[in-house]
Amino acid sequence: RPPSEAAGDLAALAELDEAALLDGLRERFLRQQVYTDVGDILIAMNPFQPLPLYGREVSEQYRHQETGTLPPHIFAVASRAYHAMLGRRGGGPQSQCIVI
User: Fold this and answer.
1) Is 18 helix (H, G, I), strand (E, B) or coil?
2) What pLDDT does residue 88 have?
3) DSSP labels for 20-87?
4) What dihedral do alpha carbons 77, 81, 87, 92 form, nearest 10°?
5) Is the dihedral of CA 45, 66, 96, 75 positive or negative?
6) Which of 39, 10, 6, 37 is CA-nearest to residue 23?
7) Which of 50, 48, 76 is nearest to 61 (CA)?
8) How many CA atoms lie within 13 Å of 35's alpha carbon, on the beta-carbon side?
């Protein structure tokens, strides 16, 4: 099993079952990492406290980031969808849908 820092995307775990998923989410939550990827799915957990996750500096970091270079975040989902919609991800423009 990879170290917890490597588990920003739980789909990268050697074995992904319910116990591994819940354990990974718990570990990340305890480190105030409230966003976790599972492949193309972003899981967001309510931290029940204000965290510095949504300022302009954070937004700018995710604006043109390469997938996987920054920790999971809602801004990364928005950036990927926006660039895919415009056709900047190769293969021409693609319709996008984000379910919250």
Assistant:
1) helix
2) 85
3) HHHHHHHHHHHTT--EEEETTEEEE---SS--S-SSHHHHHHHHTPPTTSS---HHHHHHHHHHHHHT
4) 110
5) positive
6) 10
7) 76
8) 17
Mean pLDDT of the chain: 87
Query: Confidence class of residue 7 from pLDDT cuts 50, 70 and 90?
Result: low
Query: What is the identity of the amino acid at 77?
Result: V
Q: How many residues does the chain have?
A: 100
pLDDT in tens, 26-65: 999 999 999 999 988 999 999 999 999 999 999 999 987 7
Q: Which residue has the tokens 């919250």?
A: 100
Q: Which residue has the tokens 């966003």?
A: 35
Give me the amino acid identity at 38: V
Per-residue pLDDT band for 24 (boundaries 50, 70, 90) equals very high
- The two tokens of residue 87 are 């056709």
